[in-house]
Amino acid sequence: MKILGIETSCDETGICIIETTGKEASDFSIKILGNQLYSQIALHAQYGGVFPMMAKREHAKNLVPLFEKCLEEANLKKDSDQNNLTEEKTEKIKNILVYEQGLFEDFINLAKKIERPEIDAIAVTNGPGLEPALWVGVCFAKALGEAWNIPIIPTNHMEGHIVVGALILQTEPKVYKLKPVSFPAISLLVSGGHTQLVLSKENQKYEIIGNTKDDAIGEAFDKVARILGLPYPGGPQISKLAEKDRTEFPDKKTSYPLPRPMIHSKDLNFSFSGIKTAVLYTVQKIENITDAIKQEIAREFEDAVIEVIIKKTQKAVETYGAKTIIIGGGVSANKKIRNDFAVLANTLGIELMIPEFSTSTDNAFMIALAGFLNINSGKQPETEFKAKGNLSLQ
Fold it and tell me: Does 226 lie in the same domain as 134?
């Protein structure tokens, strides 16, 4: 089965084609045939954050070129001298893409000159994320489905972040197997828009047991970076300074202690707005903020938020008797998170699943994989679905 994944939830435009074989999870083989990603980070960095309508325009501009490149990489692009699009289909596609500036023309020009690709299904992110950006991917998927009669599986972005953690790279490049998950499993989702604890008692079944009450962890990283005068995206900048401080002063006690919000609360929820404010107040009291001070505050901030997510995850594991911890989301690329959760899993005697660095941030590979797993579990294609910025995993 060949599946096309489409990802446009924020500022990454992703197109991926995978080929899957096997009938059971234990013998699934997942091969990446083509994988293209365009990052808008450099564009949004000029403004210190992501602008949804700007992201939407960039997705519309880049989807067709990326799709064409992906088809070429996968050896699925076959030129045709016949236009297989009827006037009726062309009109339907025009209506689908009516709000996506320039995308209709690019799409029709490509569709007229190539044959129907050998794609069995399309998996597209329909939420959560920035709704204007999501709509571009959803409409593009619907246009493809209309043009070539390909079934579409709307796919939850956060599920993609969960399932990609079970991948095991084989000796052959771009070929993966799936590691079996021992249930119950606790997934910690950490990204720019989410900090969630999710309980799974079986595959493709999710119950949200903890959530952020305000800022997500990635959002807090970016806001603290802005307070410290660091460039966007802030997470990697904070982590770089924090790691440098730990290397230079391994045993140093901080001069700028920060709170560990909700670490002792009885529930499994999070709150990171207060720690951002605490950093702001700390900075306002310092007359001359040197690079060394920024470095020290970055370390204390990272230590604080990671201590909270470690403590909450451990509580969730103990409460539900979990046998596996799964970490997903863009913030899972953080080195200290990876190291500290490896220690936690070893201490608890349970398995840790965490994606490789290349698949931890937003990408279309995880969407194609989630789509395949949903098809395999019996999920039916849809045509009338919408983009939902606040789509729940539950």
Answer: no
